[in-house]
Amino acid sequence: MTISIWASMSLTAIFIISGLIFRRSLILTILLLIWMYILIGFNEGGPDINNYYLMYSESSSPSSMFNFGPGQLWVDWNLFTKSLNLNFVQSHALIMVPVMLILFTGIRLLTENVNFLLALMMIYPLPDMVIQRRQIIAMAIIVYAIHFLKQKKVMYQMSFIISVIVAYGFHEMSLLFLPLIFIPYLNISHIFRTMIILDIIASIGISFFLKYASVIFSQSKVELYTQSLQISKIKTIPFVILHFVIVLLTYYLGRQKIQEDKMSDSDELILKLSVVSTVYTPLYFVNTTFFRYFRTLIVGVYAFFSNDQRPLNARWQLFIIIIFSVIGLNLFFYVLFGQLGFDWLILPIFKDNVLFNPSIYSY
To answer: Model pTM?
Structure first.
């Protein structure tokens, strides 16, 4: 590896450690956001890069000006930046400016300890945020929209629905978040029981869902996710276990907050979202790509952990567990059970960045 790669990896590690320690420093927040923007916005590598370049070069105007469908806003953005004579990298770098601002705003609405959360995100799921360009845009929109679920007001619920539709315009998997509209109506005291009931219903109804999925989602995506890109069932089981471990840790901490009467509105919302998210775990046995759903909500889970107000010793014990768990997530997805591994998923974050390695600038 070159000096620039080692330098960028070392700087990333320094930012992560700093974010975990200085959780509210405004200057550090700005530096973390700028560094994440650089890593994501100016990357020209990863396993999906050719597909995105193809989508960019082949983007064409719809036959009708009122046409709207899955990913249409991504196409519209490509057409807009092509009209400005921007190339693929410039187009992506430009859209990532508002995306990072939306993501930051959504995070700030959930926690004041922004740096702690950003540091965890730089461990996981940063690699996927770099690779999956449409997904991170949808992710930022959903993270921002989460705060609309704090209340039962119609205006808030309509705002959440509109946000999901906008996210759908970049990635159609965003529709999976639409049922969250019922979250405000769930009783926090019975949330664990609700999880069990919903998981049983989901396990029984999975075949029905897959049978009629093409009514909601495009046929090409249904075939891709249900017939291709699959891994063995043995490798699927750890995905389910990891999901439940994180949820149960959140639930355990949530019960303590309830008993101590320290549960804020944001924490109550995140606890509900976390526990109910297990309803989609049966889909992992169809395709582990569906873990993207929880990968978006894990931002909220990080906020929940960062809001811990217990005594310092107990808090740091929790933080150590969380930090090692997130590092484990990174190793699990990108080294141990990933289909491509470190050289394809981690190294390109630093090796294929046009600011660190201008010689690769081709698109």
So the answer is: 0.90
